């Protein structure tokens, strides 16, 4: 089974971040890893990241912009497959399994799919 890393880029999205992380941790593809790149947040994002403990990996860096965060992730990836997820988005259940199923059907270099932005009221009420 191929491993896949879902990279979540975050900058000051404390109201959404936990929901994004939970959407990845809830995937049914067993070889899914979560890497959160925090791009110098000044809100409570880093405390939220800490609450997930060893269930996720994280990198806390100085603010350099979203592209710098994703480029940093590419440099440290340990898997051949990656899904990039903004911290104000969520993955549908089964999304990782579906992506990996499609990759297995041919010589694909990219799979793109729809995602959902979470409702801010639901995210805040979870905190």
Helix content: 25-40%
Helix and strand succession?
Answer: EHEHEHEHH
- What share of residues are in beta strands? 15-25%
Unreliable residue stretches: 123-127
How many helical elements? 5
| Average pLDDT for all residues | 90
Q: Report how far the terminal alpha carbons are from each other.
A: 35 Å
Give the structural class.
alpha/beta
Largest sheet, order of strands side by side?
Answer: 3-2-1-4
Shape: globular
Largest sheet: 4 strands, parallel
Task: Write down the Rg.
Answer: 14 Å
Total beta-strand segments: 4
Q: Oligomer, anyone? A: single chain
At a glance:
Helices cover 36% and strands 20% of the residues. With 127 residues, it is α/β, with parallel strands linked by helices.
Write the layout of secondary structure elements.
Layout: E1 4-10, H1 14-25, E2 32-39, H2 45-51, E3 57-61, H3 66-76, E4 81-86, H4 95-103, H5 120-126
Parallel strand pairs: 1-2, 1-4, 2-3
Helix pairs in contact: 1-2, 1-5
Description:
There is one protein chain. The protein is α/β, with parallel strands linked by helices. Helix content is about 35%, strand content about 20%. Helix 1 packs parallel to helix 2 (about 45-50) and helix 1 (about 15-25) packs across helix 5. It is globular.
């Amino acid at each position: 089974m191929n491993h896949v890393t879902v990279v979540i880029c975050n900058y000051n999205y404390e109201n959404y971040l936990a929901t994004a992380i939970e959407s990845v941790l809830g995937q049914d593809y067993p070889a899914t890893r979560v890497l959160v790149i925090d791009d110098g947040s000044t809100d409570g994002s880093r405390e939220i990241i800490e609450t997930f403990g060893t269930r996720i990996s994280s990198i806390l860096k100085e603010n350099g912009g979203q592209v710098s965060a994703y480029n940093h992730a590419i440099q440290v990836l340990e898997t051949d497959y990656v899904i990039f997820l903004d911290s104000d988005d969520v993955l549908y259940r089964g999304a990782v399994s579906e992506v990996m199923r499609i990759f297995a059907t041919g010589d694909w270099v990219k799979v793109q799919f729809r995602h959902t932005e979470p409702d801010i009221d639901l995210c805040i009420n979870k905190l």
